[in-house]
Structures are given as structure tokens and as C-alpha cells.
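pasting input
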Amino acid sequence: MENFEFINAIVLLSNFVIVPALSYGSQLALATLSLTIIYGVLRFSNFAQADWMSFGTMATILFTWLFQSIGITAGILPTALLALPFAIIVTALFCLLIDRSVYSFYRKQKSQPIVLMIVSVGVMFILQAVVRFIIGPNDRKFFDGEKYIVHALDFKNYFGLEEGLTIKSTQLITVIVALIAMISLFYFLQKTKLGKSMRAYSNNEDLALLSGINPEKIVIVTWVISSILITTAGVLYGLDKSFKPFTYFNLLLPMFAAAIVGGIGSPIGAVIGGYVIAFSEITLTYAYKKFFVYLLPENLEPSGLMQVLSTDYKFAISFIILVIVLIVRPTGIVRGKII
Amino acid sequence: MSEDLRAPVAFTVMAVLLAIVGFTQSWSVSLSVINLCIISSIMAIGVNLQWGYGGLFNAGVMGFTALGGLTAVLVSHDPIYEAWDKAGIGIVISAIIFVLSITALLFVFRNIENKQIRNTLIILIIVFGFIGINNFYGPSIDIIESINPAKTGFLGGLGLPIIFSWLIAAVIAGLVAWVIGKITLRLRSDYLAIATLGISEIVIAVVKHEDWLSRGVKNVSGLDRPVPYEIELQQSEWFLNLVERINFSKLEAMQSLSSRQDLLNDLVIDSSGIFVKLCYAGLFFSVLLLIFYLSQLALNSPWGRMLRAIRDNEEAASAMGKNIFAQHLQIFIIGSAIIGIAGAMLTTLDGQFTPGSYRPLRFTFIIWLMVIIGGSGNNLGSIFGGFFIWFIWIEAEPLSIGFMNMLAGGLEYDNPLRMHLLGSAAHLRLFIMGLLLLLALRFMPRGVIPEKIQKK
């Protein structure tokens, strides 16, 4: 077996670092994109965004239950993917309702961004109450279908390795869906007329209005895109792990960190920021002991856990990175204020 | 209503609400609510100084509260000599290495122009600092945490009376605010909110997980008290006499001697609880008054006028030669120090330090709600906001249960809908908070007791 030490180490790393970070990063990137779109067009930091994520996921779960109860499933894929479009519609409609009844008033008054941000805190409380009221505060799993693409045991038996490669189907689904969503978003923003007018509006509101862009239409499209992204991100996260309102609420912090690290207001930055935060959270808290045991000769084997920071600091890591970025390069990795 | 009348009316309504709780529930409950209301008011004044007068959005309220709480532990808990003897030196060495590395980093950052050399040096300092700290730190904390882990397992504190911690908390929170302010205050307003929120998250993570310092989520309980213990009161002569005198008529009405003695015992137990809470209330109230008085004094001085000028028009103030960053830093430090004091008071009141209970997002915004509803830019308003919002936060739960019961009135006892409604009653208070915030921002953006426009 000794010749396989290196492959064993790589498989181990892939199981516990690369694949989880890739899928978590994709989820975070989508969520951060929606935060960035709101920031770029409507010009405020939306503190309610994590709770929109819970709301969208909750709607998906309810539709999933409905479909399951009438016997519709997606075969080897999770039923939630079928429910997703319906949930997006519900979430977008509710977003627009809140926008009409709450945000539009301040937009007309040309309030400062900070006021809109405080307003979003109010919306955040209300959404939390709504979600907990409808589905309760508990942990829920709504995954069905085939669980693994590559199963550890099969892999071990097949290749005769000590470490078995595991890839959950949700991880593959996450990466694929996220890629599709990102590519279509960038296509929309760069190539279509509506996308271009959105960018123009975000860049210079007055000039955009002068050239005949309808601001109401832009606002509606923004909320719809944001709902699509945030609901998808929430469902992917929930399929991968599980749905719990409080956990989702806590994702707000890494989302903001990713947005600022990447360069707030820039969609490319949001994607980069999402992956940077996800990879650093996981690489810095993983205990590399076993990895080095495979790689190094016996007399050099490490005695400690070989962990940079304990897993307790998982949430703090995104902010340590945030602080470093704020000191070293306050504009973020990709300089950008507009979409 | 004229704006001069608003404050007296608001406070009268608040007093009536608290009295209603006193009569319908019990005075003990009412007093507990009042004590927490006072602490909330102090925090709200701290936030109001930063937001109402300085225009700074500090979302790190819970971080400073936790620091205050930690200070209360570190000041009042007895030192654990065994831990210091066995591993104190390791902790001290790692602290020295930490400080040295940070200083070296700052020095390199400021003084070395060549980018390549600078980056290499930075990486070297971080790597060696990390290795050095890990060498001393890890083994030391293992030793500390293994010494009597069920009871202590940390370094302990200074063993001073807990009341000193209120002052020291202000100093520590102020120092930390100085560091945070240096990093974040040049940022735009909403960046500042996110950055402070993040840093408070880091502070809480440290308090929660560095067991050698704070016992972490294992909590520190049985902290020392600035007021007498109930059990001591129940055994002291003067207190018995006092209770007897106050309830003289009630006791007289009793027929037999034994039933009279029973009643007296009950009364003594009840009143000792109330007496302790009254002592706390008196202490807290004097702190509140002092802080209120000092902040009013400061804000009516030329310094306060300058702060308002900066808030209302940064460019103009800057053109007049005011250093905006330095002023912002000052007010950020002062406000955070006040929040730190409130944090230490909160831990003193609880008699225990529970890092798990500091939930940055939620409680930070409740303090914010107090400031906005009370009237940002007005300290009296913040005091009212602190009382009012905390009162609602506490009383919302029984009220929501009542409301849900009403809603589910016609349904049978084990009807699933009824069960669901009652089970979700607790979440209604989040809804009430959100709705209050939205309504206030829409219809009363200047708050219940608005800032006075000074025309001079």
C-alpha cells in the first residue's frame, strides 16, 4: 500500500477540504451575488438578505412536501429542485410586496443608504418571525433521491486505497446549479438590453433616467434576480446540510464578509469573495495531522493536530479576513462600486 | 402634542406600565424588569452618543457588552494560584510574543518602502510569531484547563470587589474601541456597521472559546455581589424588625402566634428578594444618572456642538479645520466605554458570566431599536427607549400567548392548528420588534422624544 500514500493524502484532502469548500463556496457566492445586486442597484446593505434565504428555502420545503404528498418526485434528483421555481415565484412576489409597502417610500424620499439599512433590519425581524411562525425554529432535512455519486466504500474496494473518495450528489448539484446561475446572470448583465440598463442605472442614476430607463422596472427586475439567487443558494445549502432558520441567519456575516472582501458592488468580486471566504474557513480549521501522516516518513510525523485555528473560530475567520482586507486593500479584491 | 410635553408624558406612561406589572404580576418581577431596563438605557445612551451625536453606526454593541462582562469576571473572581504557578509563565510569554509581532508588523508596514522586502518580512513575522505562540500557548492552556476543570480551569481574576470592574470595563472597552476605531472609522457608514459587527463577532468568539481566560461556554457562576445576599438579610435582626414594622397591620390581623410567625417568615423571604433588587436598582440608577448628567454636560459644551456640526455637515466642519477622524474616534471610544460599563453591570446583576448568551445580531439591533424609537440625538429619549423596548421585549411573550389563545379561542384543546399557534407565540415578539422599528422609521423618524433643535 505504501506507494499510494500520496494518492491517499490527496483523496483525504479532497474529501474534507476541496469538495466541501467548493460546494460551500458556490452557495456563498450565489448568496453574496444577490446581496451585491441589491447593493449595486438599490444602494443599501440589506441586512434582511439572510432571512430572505430562509424564507425562500422554507417556501421550497413546503412545495417539496406538497409534491411528495401527491407523489411527484424527481427520481434520483432531489424533489426540491422541482419545487425551486415555484418557491422563487413566491419569494419574488413577497419581496415585491415588501418593497412596495416598505422600501419604496424611502426610495422616493431619497433617504440615505444608512436609513434603508436600518429599515432592512426591521424587515429582517419580521421575516424571522414569519419563517419561524410558519415552519418553526427546528432543524429540517428535505433531501431525497440518490445520496452519493462516489461512495467511500465502493471507491476503496475498487481502487484498493485506504482512503475512500466521497462525493455527495448535493455537492455536484450545487456546483452545477451555481455555475448555470452565475453564467446566466453574467450573460444577462452584459448582453441583454435590460441587464445593460440595470448596469447603467447602477452606475449613474440620473443619467440613466435621462436616457429613458424606467426606474420602477429596474427595481422589480432587481428584486426578482435577487430572489432567484438567494432562494437557489438557500436550497443548495439546505440540501447539502440542513435547513434551520438560525443557521441561515448566521450566514449573513460570511455573506457580508465575502461581499466586502471581493469588492462590494462588483458581481465578479462577489463570486471571488464567496470562494475566498469558504476556502479559508475550511482550510484554516481543518486538522492536517492525518494528511501529513500519509505524506511524511514515520519519524517526521507531526504530534499535534496541525490545525491553524480551532473549528470554534469558523465564523470569526471570515471577519479576520475582512479586517485584513480592510486594512490592506479597503476596496476589496476587485475594485468596484457598480455592477 | 408639544415637544416639551412629550418627555414627561412618555415617562409617566412608562411608570404606569411598570406599576401595572407590579400590581398584576408581582413587584419582584417589576423590579427585575426595571433593573434590566436601566442597563439597557445605559447601553442606549452609549449607542446614542455614537449615532445620535456622532453619526457612527456601531453594530458591535454585543462585543463591548461581552468585554464588560469578561472584565467583571477578571476583576472579581479569585485568582487561581495553582494555574498561575504551573502555566502562567507560558501565557505571559505568548502574550509578549503576540505584542512584539504586532509591533513589528506595524513597524514594517509603516517604515519599509520596498514592496518585496516588506511582504517577505510580513510573512516571516506572521509565520515565526505563530510558531512561537503555538509553542508556549498550546501546552500552557492544556495545563490551565486541566486544573480542577469542573470548577475553575482558568486563570481566575484579581479578587477585587466587583464594583471596581464597572470602571475597569470602561477602560478596557475604550481601549478595544480605540483599536477597532483605528481600523474601521475611515470607512463609509454601512461598511462601518458590517466591520464593527464582524469584529464584535470575533470578540465574542474569543470570549466563548478561550477557556483559560473566561471558562468559555462552561460559564463562570457565583460571582461576588455588591449588595447583601438574601440569606444574610433573612438572618439579620434589623431586617426582621423592618419587615415587621412595615407589615405591622397585616401581622396584627393574624389570630394565633404560629400563623403569625409563618406569615412573618413568608414576608421576610419575599422582602429580602425585593430588597436586594432595590439595592441593585439604586446602584444602577445612580450610574445611569451620572452617565446621563456627564453626557448632557459634554454635549452642551463646545465639544458637543462641534460633534453635531460634523454629523450634520462633514465637509463644512472639515473646512473649518476640525479633524473629523480624531473626533469620530473620540466619540466611538466614549460610547463603547459606556456600553462596556453596562456589560459589566449586566454580569454583576446576573451573578454569572455566560458567553453563550451574547448573540451579536439580535441584541445589537434591539439596542438600536431603543435609540431610534426613543429619539436619536436625545439622551432622555434613549433612556425612555431603553425602558420601553426592554419592557416590550419582556412582556411581549405573555401578551403573544394571550393573543394566540384569543385567536385559537374556538378551537378544541388538541386541535393541531391551535397547538401550532400557541407554539409559535414566542416568535411574535420578533414580529412586534420589526413592526415597531418600521412604523417608527416611517411615521416618527425623529423618535418619541426628538432631538431639540438649538437655535442660538
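fyi The interface with chain A takes residues 57, 130, 138, 183-184, 186-187, 189-191, 193-195, 197-199, 201-202, 205-206, 208-209, 361, 365, 368, 372, 423-424, 427-431, 433-435, 437-438, 441-442 of chain B (CB under 8 Å).
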